[in-house]
Design goal:
mainly alpha
């Protein structure tokens, strides 16, 4: 079936905006992006889309967001990538800003306290489920398990997760680096680089923005830099950012406490889009709408630059034993980090029979592939009833 002519920027934006409204389920949204971009609109063929998904899984950032950017990039260049990326993430951003505003004014109301009390038990189940899913797809063999275990122990001892990830990268290179690679058949690495000027503009504007923040508000500058660094280390999808944010925002800088951070994770689960949208919640609580905007840009822009910047070199990355060894080690470390986060979140819950039942029921439902949105909605209603 022939491909359609290039779509307009407006059509790309509106198409992904509509998709973003229902973008629950994280990486599961990739299949819906494929149905729209390949089957319905025929913007890309199946092979090109598969390459985009593979690249999105190799680089940091939320997989579905990165896939959306790749579709726009291949159809209308960097501007198209921006249109699809912003369109797909905008509903989650707007909803989280609204939720953060409501939370800031209603968090002490009895019904809200009751709901979040139960939902904190559910979020333990959510992170535990993510740990199991991450481990199932990542831990292939005893060497991978050793890397994950070492990461869990080190993070449990309060070692910086950045150092843990760097150590895991070295371990992956030494222990599980692929022994051979297939020839690069894409030819992409031999082509002239097509996105140099747009990327230079993005980087220049970002540098100016950071300089302005540095001069005007050092706290917001620190938030933007921190979230950008977290985004660049979040290999394997949005959940990989959770242990990094927990460590830096809660334990090191004390910008919010552990309970508030867990509540932000909960709200991130009932909004469409990636779990990293929790950063919007943190930013809003720190400095209102301006903080929410700065935090959102910080947690999403770096991975956008990465997907655009590396896409011409996909073939070379895909066959690089060095790159794949490092990424394998990093992904293994996130299993250990998420396990430790599960334990830390569990330690913040006031466990009784009601909380145990909620967490157990939520974990069983998630393992049975029940949509997380329904788990959270039903959990909220049950929490209000039994903890009122």
């Amino acid at each position: 079936m022939p491909r359609n002519p290039r779509p307009s920027i407006a059509h790309l934006f509106l198409s992904f905006l509509r998709l973003g409204v229902t973008a629950f389920g994280g990486p599961a949204m990739v299949i819906y992006i494929r149905r729209m971009a390949v089957d319905k609109e025929r913007w890309l063929d199946s092979d090109a889309f598969s390459d985009g998904v593979a690249l999105a899984q190799m680089v940091p950032g939320a997989t579905a967001m990165q896939t959306a950017a790749y579709v726009g990039l291949k159809t209308r260049g960097v501007i198209g990538a921006g249109a699809t990326y912003i369109g797909f993430g905008l509903p989650a951003f707007l909803l989280m800003m609204a939720f953060a505003a409501l939370y800031a004014h209603t968090r002490t109301l009895p019904a809200v306290v009751s709901a979040f009390s139960g939902l904190q038990a559910i979020i333990v189940a959510v992170v535990a489920s993510a740990t199991l899913a991450f481990g199932k797809t990542t831990l292939k063999g005893w060497k991978a398990i050793v890397i994950a275990g070492a990461a869990a122990v080190l993070f449990g001892l309060r070692v910086s997760p950045i150092l843990v990830i760097l150590l895991a990268a070295v371990e992956g290179l030494v222990l599980i680096r692929p022994k051979r690679s297939t020839p690069d058949r894409s030819g992409s690495s031999a082509q002239p680089y097509p996105y140099r000027i747009p990327l230079m503009v993005i980087l220049a504007v970002s540098a100016i923005g950071l300089l302005a923040l540095f001069l005007l508000d050092r706290t917001m500058f620190s938030l933007a830099v921190l979230l950008s660094r977290i985004d660049l280390l979040a290999f394997g999808g949005g959940f990989a950012s959770v242990p990094l944010m927990l460590h830096e925002i809660v334990e090191v800088r004390h910008w919010v406490d552990g309970h508030t951070f867990m509540n932000g994770i909960i709200l991130g689960q009932i909004t469409p889009g990636p779990i990293v949208i929790t950063a919007t919640f943190i930013g809003y609580l720190m400095n209102g709408p301006v903080g929410g905007i700065i935090a959102t840009i910080g947690i999403l822009l770096p991975s956008f630059v990465v997907i655009v910047g590396l896409s011409p070199y996909f073939g070379r990355l895909q066959t690089s034993t060095l790159f794949n060894g490092i990424i394998n080690g990093v992904l293994c470390s996130f299993v250990g980090l998420l396990l430790t986060v599960t334990i830390r979140f569990a330690s913040d819950v006031r466990w009784d029979w009601g909380h145990l039942a909620l967490a157990g029921g939520a974990l069983v439902a998630l393992l049975l592939k029940v949509d997380i949105l329904w788990v959270v909605v039903v959990g909220t209603l049950v929490s209000v009833v039994i903890f009122a």
